[in-house]
């Protein structure tokens, strides 16, 4: 059972918009956000923001004068720009879900030089640093006010 | 009805755990009621690939967004700073950054020193042994010798500087300003059954490694072994009083939603600076028509948050990102009052290591830095892992119009009236924030950052909930006395941040817990005549 109540047309619009927000890049070797695997993740991740995303897509359809996904490519870009310009919490929720799913995709993470894994249990290495940097501070007199 | 206990504690977070552990050696029958549940280390987000996404769902810091069954809603519409918390065993220590500074000696004497607010009825020297005991119990990492504090000796070495900390250290030396590695409750060595930090880098929403101290893994195992009972999924509705005006126990809803009554000889509230006044205002009786122990009318008033101003910029090389505890250093160059400035009191700088790659994308998209379309990828690669940040954490002075009341309509899942927050940032705090933001820009510039951005105040920045049942010797101007006992109800105590008189300009958990240990000791010393 889907965890959203989007219509088939809204799903097509969302997918078309996701592809505009983050297109594929051959230079970086990454897919677009409307890639099959990433978009499936997006559809699975809408539950908590379903109202905002429905509202955002309704706004997008109004700006498009119908189905956004059916517009000519250039007109899509113009409508998407107007949609972004209008801003608002529903748009922010929609973009957040797209970014959440895009930047946890294995292919995208690898292109950024990141290991596609959770932080635990391997963790990370952080250099200790040179604590002699603190020497000028160590040499200072007490700074706190003495209270009688 | 349950058997009567000697001591009933409401809330198992920072202060409730500390007071339970300390009182356990009396061999009294002690019970703690906690509205949330245990959180297993395997539940924490850093176990899974969706670790950043869960910051926006079941591990969101804002309870209205998180909306777990164990959370209660908060009407925060009339506040520029939203309350953040966690409800579960360990309370908000489950979901804090583990930054662990103490208040300073001057923080307890602001009326005497600076002519504002009120002095505390206790001082730093009184709390000093409790600070040290709490550092040992929570397990603090840090470095002795900080000139901003009286001498102290953290039991573990500091967390690493990393690339970000090194940059900040050099910048602060160039400016000639104080900086020091943060005291933190992240274990840098194996400590009391906890494994050392392995730099999961996602500390705030719980540590899967167990390196970050939360009271479910520090105080509670010791308290439970000593005989304290901790009853979870029990949401307290009200504290009841008997015909003599003494607290007689608590009415609560158990895990199945059934109403229960727990009688007690002594009741201790440890529900934080919003939860405690909410419970007190919901505890209405013929004796206390305006809420229990509220003859002063101050229950819920003088709410203090610590307004935060976040300043960040981007450098031209990859740094630590989120690989490592997020906060690594502090500066108290501008902590003490300086009469040449246009504000009284002061602030701390917290230096941030960086953020995760998804959070960077979301924040940058919201700020308009991250374009849609062809330029998205190139721009993003100039942002990710290149951020360094400085937060200004400002002392918030008490003002009665900043308050917690009961919302007339909003209720939790048990039908208990929810808290409503009315809060504004004072003119003094605004001036302090402006000063801090200007200095933060100098620091970031010296550290080689450009594209400097500000979020002020941090919207979801109401971590520190203080002042709503203040401590004092005058029953007309305070709710509890100098050792945490309510003036009006001599077997009712408060041990959380509600009792703070002023806020200082540092994270409060260390001082909240030291106060709880001090109050527990005060109770133990007076057991023979506790109610006199």
Topology (elements, then pairings):
The complex is a heterodimer of chains A (148) and B (532).
Chain A: H1 8-21, H2 36-44, H3 50-64, H4 73-86, H5 89-102, H6 106-111, H7 135-138
Helix pairs in contact in A: 2-5, 3-4, 3-5
Chain B: E1 5-10, H1 14-23, E2 30-33, H2 63-66, E3 75-78, H3 110-114, H4 124-138, H5 162-175, E4 180-181, H6 219-225, E5 229-231, E6 235-241, E7 247-253, E8 259-269, H7 272-282, E9 308-314, E10 327-331, E11 347-352, H8 357-366, H9 376-381, E12 387-394, E13 403-411, E14 417-422, H10 427-446, E15 450-455, E16 492-494, H11 509-525
Parallel strand pairs in B: 1-2, 1-8, 2-5, 3-14, 8-16
Antiparallel strand pairs in B: 4-10, 6-7, 7-8, 9-12, 9-15, 10-11, 11-12, 13-14
Order of helices and strands of chain B: EHEHEHHHEHEEEEHEEEHHEEEHEEH
**In terms of per-residue confidence, which ranges of chain B show pLDDT below 50 for 5 or more consecutive residues?**
none
> Biggest β-sheet of chain A: count, sense, barrel?
none
Count interface residues per chain for the largest interface.
Answer: A-B, 53 and 70 residues
CATH homologous superfamily grouping of chain B = FAD/NAD(P)-binding domain
Radius of gyration based on Cα positions of chain A: 23 Å
Beta-strand content estimate of chain B = 15-25%
Query: What name does CATH use for the topology of chain B?
Result: FAD/NAD(P)-binding domain
**How many angstroms separate the termini of chain A?**
69 Å
């Amino acid at each position: 059972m889907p965890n959203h109540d989007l219509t088939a047309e809204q799903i097509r619009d969302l997918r078309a918009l996701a592809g505009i927000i983050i297109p594929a890049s051959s230079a970086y070797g990454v897919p677009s956000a409307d890639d099959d695997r990433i978009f499936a993740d997006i559809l699975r991740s809408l539950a908590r923001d379903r109202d905002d995303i429905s509202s955002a897509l309704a706004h997008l359809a109004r700006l498009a004068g119908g189905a956004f996904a059916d517009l000519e490519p250039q007109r899509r870009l113009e409508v998407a720009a107007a949609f972004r310009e209008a801003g608002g919490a529903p748009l922010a929720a929609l973009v957040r879900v797209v970014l959440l799913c895009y930047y946890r995709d294995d292919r995208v993470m690898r292109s950024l030089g990141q290991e596609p894994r959770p932080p635990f249990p391997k963790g990370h290495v952080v250099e200790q640093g040179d604590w002699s940097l603190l020497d000028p501070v160590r040499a200072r007199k007490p700074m706190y006010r003495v209270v009688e | 009805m349950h058997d009567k206990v000697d001591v009933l504690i409401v809330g198992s977070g920072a202060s409730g755990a500390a007071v339970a552990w300390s009182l356990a050696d009396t061999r009294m029958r002690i019970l703690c009621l906690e509205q949330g549940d245990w959180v297993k280390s395997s539940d924490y987000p850093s176990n899974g690939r969706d670790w950043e996404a869960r910051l926006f769902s079941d591990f969101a810091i804002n309870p209205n967004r998180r909306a777990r069954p164990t959370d209660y809603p908060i009407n925060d519409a009339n506040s520029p700073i939203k309350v953040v918390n966690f409800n579960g065993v360990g309370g908000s220590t489950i979901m804090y950054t583990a930054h662990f500074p103490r208040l300073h000696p001057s923080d307890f004497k602001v009326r005497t020193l600076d002519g504002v607010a009120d002095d505390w009825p206790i001082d730093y020297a009184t709390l000093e042994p409790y600070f040290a005991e709490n550092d040992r119990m929570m397990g603090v990492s840090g470095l002795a010798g900080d000139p901003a504090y009286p001498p102290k000796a953290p039991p573990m070495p500091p967390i690493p500087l990393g690339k970000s900390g090194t940059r900040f250290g050099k910048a602060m030396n160039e400016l000639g300003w104080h900086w020091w590695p943060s005291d933190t409750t992240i274990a840098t060595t194996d400590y009391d059954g906890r494994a050392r930090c392995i730099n999961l880098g996602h500390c705030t929403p719980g540590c899967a490694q167990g390196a970050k101290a939360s009271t479910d893994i520090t105080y509670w195992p010791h308290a439970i072994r000593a005989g304290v009972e901790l009853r979870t999924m029990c949401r307290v509705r009200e504290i009841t009083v008997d015909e003599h005006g003494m607290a007689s126990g608590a009415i609560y809803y158990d895990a199945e939603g059934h109403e229960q009554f727990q009688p007690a000889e002594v009741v201790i509230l440890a529900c934080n600076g919003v939860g405690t006044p909410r419970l007190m205002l919901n505890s209405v009786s013929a004796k206390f028509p305006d809420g229990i122990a509220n003859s002063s009318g101050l229950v819920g008033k003088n709410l203090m948050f610590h307004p935060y101003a976040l300043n960040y910029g981007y450098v031209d090389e990859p740094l630590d990102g989120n690989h490592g505890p997020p906060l690594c250093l502090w500066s108290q160059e501008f902590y003490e009052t300086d009469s040449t400035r246009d504000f009284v009191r002061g602030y701390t700088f917290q230096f941030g290591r960086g953020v995760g790659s998804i959070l960077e994308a979301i924040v940058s998209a919201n700020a308009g830095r991250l374009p849609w379309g062809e330029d998205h990828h190139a721009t993003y690669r100039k942002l990710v892992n290149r951020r360094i940040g400085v937060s200004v954490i400002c002392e918030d002075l008490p003002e009665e119009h900043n308050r917690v009341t009961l919302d007339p309509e909003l209720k939790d899942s048990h039908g208990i009236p929810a808290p409503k927050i009315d809060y504004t940032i004072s003119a003094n705090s605004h001036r302090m924030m402006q000063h801090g933001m200007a200095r933060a820009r100098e620091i970031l510039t010296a550290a080689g950052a450009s594209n400097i951005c500000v979020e002020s105040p941090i919207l979801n920045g109401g971590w520190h909930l203080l002042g709503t049942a203040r401590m004092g010797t005058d029953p007309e101007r305070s709710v509890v006395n100098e050792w945490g006992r309510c003036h009006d109800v001599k077997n009712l105590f408060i041990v959380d941040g509600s009792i703070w008189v002023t806020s200082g300009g540092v994270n409060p958990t260390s001082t909240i817990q030291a106060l709880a240990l001090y109050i527990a000791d005060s109770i133990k010393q007076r057991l023979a005549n506790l109610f006199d």
